Predict the structure of UDP-4-amino-4, 6-dideoxy-N-acetyl-beta-L-altrosamine transaminase.
Amino acid sequence: MLPYGRQSISEEDIEAVTAILRGDWLTTGPAVTAFEQAIGEIAGGHRAVSCTSGTAALDIAYSALGVGPGDEVVTTPMTFVATASCAAIKGAKIVFADVEEDTALLDPAAVQAVVTDRTKVIAAVDYAGHAADYDALQPIADSVGAKTLADAAHSVGGTYKGRPVGDLADVTTMSFFPTKNLTTGEGGAVVAKDPAVAQKAHEFHFIGVVRDPERFRVTDEGPWYYEVHEFGQNYRLTDVACALGLSQLKRLDEFKKRRTEITARYNEAFAGVDGLRTPAQREYVDPAWHLYPVRILGGRRKEVFGKLREAGIGVQVNYIPVYWHPVFTDLGYQRGMCPNAEQFYAEEISLPMFPDLTDGDVDRVIETLIGLVG
């Protein structure tokens, strides 16, 4: 079976990890610091806090932004459930806004229609690796005193109007799962433009530990002393994982280049094919294509999905509209709320997309899919 996504691990990656295993630090050591600095550098020079997963990054980000009961978080239904659930767990009301019909990205007009004075965060998702329209979303957030959050699990390494992912929203979350644009095994990061928010993120991911003597309430203890002012979690990423991440970062441009080549090959082959619709791309966005979301028209998505898998081609659907999940339907969310997202879901299939795909692999996918819809 040709997988739809797969990590790319080099001998250099393996050597980087084994060097850590032979050293003195397995966690909370210099590799973590170096990795966070490197992520911050590619994200516009802002502080990055590494963590154990993209979901952990979302939990940290919502905590650092002070999301809680009585707040509203506006987000897209075309995402993995964690974008919404991590805010819902904190007591926030999730308000789903529809997506653009062509890109499946959060639609600023739909957001404008639902924000209120209770909106705390507008959380966009860079679906498939294509950045959302942050220049349109930020003024909406500013108008109601909210913050923007970019769920950049798909888009690390991409740019929007020449600016890097990580520099587009007030807070950005990243994922380093094996199929993502780079991997630490499991892992993630939070990038914040506001240093105070970044510090809150750091402390929350470090069990709430405060080590700044100027903030201590008790000042006559010794150098071992620390305090916990707010509850936090242990979401610390290890030096082992960060060593892999540092090695992977050296190939991020190479990974992005290959993903772009694969996307172009798919686009060229599928252009004008009846029954297929290729992904949209805004001229001012340079995506880091994490997915290739082709749309199967004519109500044939389920049939084509099954036949592709029967042919040994791994495909996936990204995503089930979040409010369709029982945990949200039990709260009163109903189908039909976001028709563009639901239509996109009804047609979407994610084709194989990872740097080690050969041209022959891509051609096999192309020929099989065209044969099925032709």
